[in-house]
Design goal:
Two copies of one chain form a homodimer. The longest helix of chain A is centred in the middle third of the chain and has 21 residues. The N and C termini of chain A lie far apart (45 Å). Chain A is globular. By secondary structure, the first copy, chain A, is an alpha/beta fold. Chains A and B meet through helix 6, helix 8 and helix 12 of A and helix 6, helix 8 and helix 12 of B.
């Protein structure tokens, strides 16, 4: 077992692997609190950060934050903590890249969309923690992070205590879960801990499945979506399929009514938002559909649960993705 | 009964009501064959046609065709034949406008998308013939018609002999059906006759339901659609729902396999085409979704047939329509 709680030690280095908007946000918060942080990301962003610092743009206030940078994986060797922030379709390739470089006591935390990244990391030999990320942030230009809302986490073991499935209510968060929460809370990042992070990952997946694809296909903000009875019906069908798949998969997720009500509250609170998937497609980029509605379809098929609404949305988003990326 | 077959008479005037691309195409073909034709349409197009003639642009060859024009409904008073070509959402309003102006012996032919225009015209006091239109044409500018494929019709009474439902195989095309076919065939327009035009209208509706909404939502041409197994599955579900609704509605439509095979052949023959709905949305215009997939949903609901695929497509197209029209 790695020793993760050693307050008397020198500061532990955090390496952000795949430093897009999410990775830059949390890396910057930790760096501002005194943690040594290395960002590993694309040259265009890293060059700008090395030269001028990260331009952290939040609520109309801009500041520059100094961070170490790298464009290759070598810096992973120094990491006590790895914030794993790559796009979900790159999880395996990135895991193969960093696995041979990790210190024996390094802890990897997946800060990604979707619910299966920890399993995919395990299959690649990395026993990661899972985190649910709530932050509205985007890269507005090279080295320029624009933050527009929230910035909090839920963290925990995937499936409860490592190597065994947690009993409901019985399990406690693992020591490394508590340690990562202290790291973030110490930097002013609210970080809820869970013994088993799966239900929290699914909560976010359900909301993403209900909003992202519809917003992307119709270039619509959340307000007009939840104002339309037919769209609400489609969102509810999508949510209901997700809940059935999660339950069949043994995840203690709240039911369809609760998830639907939460989605309506989210839409009301974010009437002017459109989904990250909509932004990806508007910019001609690929989406994470295979980790969102597409994942629900695959798990549903494996578990014998019909998912017609999620399947139609997945099919349409993939086709639109090919149209806008020319591939 | 109007006397419609009088070869010894002076040429009968054709009035095109709602002269967009479809109306201009068939009006021009009739005018070139010597039939007096009046186009009634928007001022921008009519002004150009009055000044310079219709610019008829087909297969790389351009010619100018003289036609009478009007921007109000008054010219309908002169019509022996009215080609009724308005957008389906304007059917009732246009019918109210022309009904008081029609000669007692005038015959109205609906050249519109969807399957319920004749019923809607009847409810407005106009006993029209139905026609299925196969033509690829668009207005490329004021008074400028661009024709890119086909140009043929299927015409017949809606529901068979007027006032009664035709017995399968027993009914003959009505006299006015034969007369309108002679008018078009005499102008070189292939015109198939049917005793009951409903199945032919549904054939086209099924193809429209399978292609138009998916093409519009994904900005996709037909080739990439039929190359994708998931899209083919969605198209087949959409077609199957249409066929079930048509059968429940008493329409002798060919089954799902035949309709699906026809759709695949159409997609193969038109790999580079995108749907008129896609073009409408790309240009910020409203679509005819309520007469296509939306109609199938409404009839399905009335007849107790589930139409989840058509419903999802309808919901998404309506929301996208609001995004692009700002309404």
């Amino acid at each position: 077992m790695p020793v993760v709680d050693r307050p008397d030690d020198r500061p532990q280095r955090v390496v952000v692997f795949g430093a897009g908007a999410v990775g830059c946000y949390f890396g910057a918060k930790l760096a501002e609190a005194g943690t040594p942080v290395t960002l590993i990301g694309r040259a265009a962003h890293m060059d700008a950060v090395r030269r001028d610092g990260l331009l952290f743009d939040s609520g109309g206030v801009q500041r520059r934050i100094r961070l170490d940078t790298d464009t290759g994986a070598e810096s992973v060797r120094k990491a006590h903590w790895v914030l794993f922030c790559v796009k979900t379709r790159d999880t395996e390739a990135a895991a193969r890249q960093i696995a041979p470089l990790l210190r024996p006591d390094a802890v990897v935390v997946s800060l990604q969309n979707g619910v299966d990244n920890v399993e995919r990391l395990r299959a690649s030999g990395i026993d990661a923690l899972g985190a649910v990320v709530y932050v509205a942030a985007a890269m507005a230009g090279p080295g320029h992070l624009r933050h527009s809302g929230r910035g909090d986490l839920v963290v925990g073991e995937y499936g409860g205590a490592r190597g065994e499935v947690a009993m409901a209510g019985a399990a406690q968060p693992s020591a490394r879960t508590l340690a990562v929460a202290r790291l973030f809370e110490g930097a002013g990042v609210p970080c809820r801990v869970e013994a088993d992070v799966r239900a929290a990952l699914w909560d976010k997946l359900v909301a993403n499945c209900a909003f992202n694809a519809i917003s992307a296909l119709t270039r619509s903000r959340y307000g007009p979506m939840i104002d339309d009875a037919d769209v609400r019906r489609l969102m509810r069908e999508t949510i209901d399929e997700c809940v059935r798949v999660a339950h069949a998969d043994g995840v203690a997720l709240a039911g369809t009514d609760a998830q639907y009500d939460a989605a309506m509250r989210l839409g009301e609170a974010m009437r002017e938002a459109s989904s990250s998937m909509e932004q990806d497609l508007s910019s001609g980029r690929r989406t994470e559909i295979d980790s969102l509605n597409g994942y629900v379809c695959r798990r549903g098929e494996a578990l014998g649960i019909a998912t017609p609404a999620n399947r139609t949305l997945t099919t349409l988003v993939r086709l639109l993705e090919r149209s806008v990326t020319g591939g």
